[in-house]
């Protein structure tokens, strides 16, 4: 029995089974309204905050990268992460007004 090829945008447990990714809905359920995108292109290091507004609920967060392009260098090598700044603000109960 051979396993299907691995998806580079998914995490796998030690048995090689895919770990279900966070989705737009599950991230919103944690009161998050944005995620962070990081450009993986060599030497770019551009990062951006991406609002979840407008994305379908069932979209896996890692797959948002497929629809994004770096605004600095134009690369499509994007990695999605939880927006730790937003998480930090939430955890610490401090709200900053946005511009
Ligand atoms: Zn870039």
Q: How much helicity do the residues have?
A: 10-25%
Q: What is the residue-mean pLDDT, rounded to a whole number?
A: 91
CATH fold descriptor: Rubrerythrin, domain 2
Count of DSSP H/I helices: 2
Measured between the Cα atoms of the first and last residue, the distance is 55 Å
Write the SSE topology:
Elements (H helix, E strand, L loop, with lengths): L10 E2 L5 E2 L4 H5 L5 E6 L7 E5 L26 E5 L1 H8 L8
Antiparallel strand pairs: 1-2, 3-4, 3-5
The structure holds zinc ion.
How would you describe the overall organization of this protein?
Helices cover 13% and strands 20% of the residues. It is of the alpha+beta class and 99 residues long. The protein has one domain (21-91): Single Sheet (Rubrerythrin, domain 2), CATH 2.20.28. The protein has a 3-stranded antiparallel beta sheet. Strands 1-2 form a two-stranded antiparallel ribbon. Bound molecules: zinc ion.
Brief overview:
With 99 residues, this protein is of the alpha+beta class.
Descriptive tags:
single chain, 99 residues, alpha+beta, Rubrerythrin, domain 2, two-stranded antiparallel ribbon, globular
């Amino acid at each position: 029995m051979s396993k299907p090829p691995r998806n580079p945008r998914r995490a796998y447990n030690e048995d090689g089974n895919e770990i279900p990714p966070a989705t737009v809905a599950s991230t919103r359920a944690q009161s998050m309204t944005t995620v962070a995108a990081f450009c993986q292109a060599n030497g770019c290091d551009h990062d951006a905050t991406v609002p979840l507004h407008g994305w379908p609920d069932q979209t896996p967060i890692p797959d948002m990268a497929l629809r994004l392009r770096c605004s600095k260098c134009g690369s499509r090598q994007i990695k999605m992460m939880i927006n730790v700044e937003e998480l930090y603000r939430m955890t610490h109960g401090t709200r900053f007004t946005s511009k």
